[in-house]
Amino acid sequence: MTLSRLGYNIFLKGNTYNRLHGLKKTNTFVTFPTRACSTMPCREVAQMSDDEVKKWVNSFDTVMTDCDGVLWVGGEAVPGSPDVIQRFRALGKKVFYVTNNSTKHRKEYKIKFDKLGFGGEMDEIIGTAYLAAAYLEDIGFDKSKSVYVVGSTGITQELDDIGVKHNDVGPDPVSSDVSLDAIRSCLPHPEPGVGAVIVGHDIHISFFKMTKAASHLAKPEVIFVATNTDEQFPVKGTGIIVPGTGAFVAAVETAACRKPTILGKPSKYMFEIIKHRHPGVDPKRTLMIGDRANTDILLGKNCGLQTLLVGTGCHSLADTRKWELSEDAEERRLVADYYSDKLGDLLERMSRL
Fold first, then answer.
1. What are the structural domains of the chain?
2. Which of 227, 278, 290 is nearest to 124 (CA)?
3. What distance in Å separates the CA atoms of residue 290 and residue 64, rounded to the nearest whole number?
4. Helices (DSSP H) in 104-224: which residue ranges?
5. Tell me: the pLDDT tens digits for 233-283?
6. Residue 76 and residue 144: Cα distance in Å, rounded?
7. Tell me, what DSSP letter sits at residue 98?
8. How confident is the model at residue 173 (pLDDT cuts 50, 70, 90)?
């Protein structure tokens, strides 16, 4: 199902499309309250009484959850997390999976959710690869034009689903015997007919890819979209930092001297797409679960949702306590409403509900 069938194009063309093209802002189709700086300390679920947990769980009808670092790490489910998701459903909660990972098509995620015991339907999976394709469709992207993708097959497969042409993704290396002085003789010429550039996570990022993307974006009419801007992915216990999509977006943005439209968390688009599919979803009765405060928790704050931070991924309770004491208002907005060491710890607390 496309967003345009759900009225989402009304919102985009009345607000997002205008921002993208520098036009005067018009009335929006829907707005969501942005939560002010946290004035209450983050509550540890483990320290709450059974009555407090019951009251909390009864305060939300919809659950939005990040995936990597919350539901699983690598190919293994975080212990107890599939059971908690199933328990949410048994209690009548609607569950949506929201991920900034643009490397996979929703079909691949569906297979993983089923394999690891989470379940769920395709339309409950909101990834940035899908969001990028849906965004182009709903701003009326001219399908006689093509998209230059710096990213992976997750994006190109979603573009295939809506009939948008694109380049082949994968390695585009510079020969090791080419010097910077001689590079002008072998610079790639931009392909004709490109109407948009999408930048996602690309392990094959290269000098030529940045050159092509920036060259296309030299034309002001070419749309510039970034799936997300996650900075990095620390690999716990190894000392290794894996560059996130934000590193690739920053490279293209710097070369092109242009700012992209960013679709992933903490941008409101993740919640907007859900709200338009399900108009009955109430922000105040929606829980956002995540492991990264500056994407997951901040999305919740930007959209007026309740928030739960789990300690199985990027950020910790110690980080939260530090932000609570910060004089920086933006850091205080990173403080979640609730905290649990892992999602699976909620199972016993909810078993009596």
1. 32-100+266-350 (3.40.50.1000), 137-262 (3.40.50.1000)
2. 278
3. 9
4. 106-115, 128-138, 153-161, 207-217
5. 767 678 888 899 999 999 999 999 999 999 999 999 889 989 988 899 999
6. 42
7. E
8. confident
Which amino acid appears at position 60 of this protein? F
Helical ranges in 169-266 per DSSP H: 207-217, 245-256
pLDDT at 128 over 80: yes
Q: In what order do the strands lie in the sheet with 306-310?
A: 43-44, 338-340, 306-310, 286-290, 62-65, 94-99, 125-127
The Cα–Cα gap between 26 and 13 comes to 9
**Token code pair at residue 276:** 């338009």
| Inter-residue contact 152 to 169 (CB < 8 Å) | yes
Question: 194-199 and 94-99: which strand pairing?
Answer: unpaired
Q: Phi/psi at 77 (nearest 5 deg)?
A: -70, 140
**Degrees to nearest 5, angle at CA 292 with 287 and 297:** 35
Q: Which residues does 142 contact at the CB level (< 8 Å), separation at least 6? A: 195
In tens, the pLDDT along 24-77 reads 333 333 445 555 454 689 999 999 999 999 999 999 999 999 999 999 998 899
Residues involved in catalysis: 66, 68
Contact 267, 289 (CB under 8 A): no
